[in-house]
Structures are given as C-alpha cells and as structure tokens.
Specification:
By secondary structure, the chain is an alpha+beta fold. It has two domains: 49 residues, Winged helix-like DNA-binding domain superfamily/Winged helix DNA-binding domain (Arc Repressor Mutant, subunit A); 78 residues, Lrp/AsnC effector binding domain/regulation of amino acid metabolism (RAM) domain (Alpha-Beta Plaits). The chain has a four-stranded antiparallel sheet. Helix 1 runs antiparallel to helix 6 and helix 2 crosses helix 3. It holds the Pfam family HTH_AsnC-type.
Amino acid sequence: MVSDTPVWRGTLSTVTGIDATDARLLLALSEDPRATVMALSQSLGLARNTVQARLARLESGGVLDPFERRVRPEALGYRLGAYITVTVVQTSLAEVSAGLADIPEVLEVIGLSGAADLLVQVVAVDADDLWRISEQVLAIPGVQRTDTNLALRRFVDHRMTPLLERAARR
C-alpha cells in the first residue's frame, strides 16, 4: 500500500531563509494566527501587497509548517507518546521510510547520525496500542532493531518565538 501522507524529503538547506521583516511578520502571526493580511499590514506598517507576497514566499519556500502541526494528538484520544529509534539496513532506508509513513500513528521520522538511523515519533491510545504500533514498525522489511522510549512529560513545547525575536532584531 502506498501512503497518501505527504513525506517531506528535503534537507534543512532547502528551506527559504528569512530576513528581519519576515521574522516580524511571523512573530505577528504567532501572536494572532487568524490575523488578516490587512491587519498584519497595519500592525507592521507594511503595504498589503508586501505582506501578501511575503506570506506566499514563506509558504512556498517551506518556512511555514502545515496547519496540522497545531492539532494535539491528545485531543484525538492518543494520550501516550513515544520515540522509537530504528536501526535500518542501509540500502532499505527509502522503503523503511515509506513503510513508516503508512502507519497513521507515526507523527514524524527524522534521520539520525550515530547508533540508530531513524528517530520515529509515535502516539498511541494506551500501552497495548503502542505494542501494536511497535510490532508494525518491526515488521517493515529492512528494519533491524528498534528501541522504544516513552514520553513522560513535555517540559518545553515546540517553539520558535525566541529565534524569531532574535531574527527580527537583525
């Protein structure tokens, strides 16, 4: 089965860079994600067309993540989070990545350097569900070994504001 899930196969260098004005625009969006182009234009002292063009460039340049990143898995009943490190037969990396993308509970897959090849963020309803998901990961051809670590508590949420504030001061 081929997944309909979009898989981002880019590198960090493929993301468009931003300048101080872009950073100010992104900070304003962070404060009010529903702000209209006109409201952003007025609050930043920029022309409406400038804001519209910059937003379009930021979206097409991969600077903005999809809206779905804002949805918390807990709201969908997935109260258990885990990180699975996966060791892969090196020639099977593409196939293993595609297999992981076919598992709905897999939220993100990151290539690593070091002993493990992939870091897989997953969510589960409970421990039995996590066992099922782990078995699915192990069943993917090319997976040699996995190690599962439960996420017990989030101490710092995903954030960009400190970096945007620094970029806005450039």
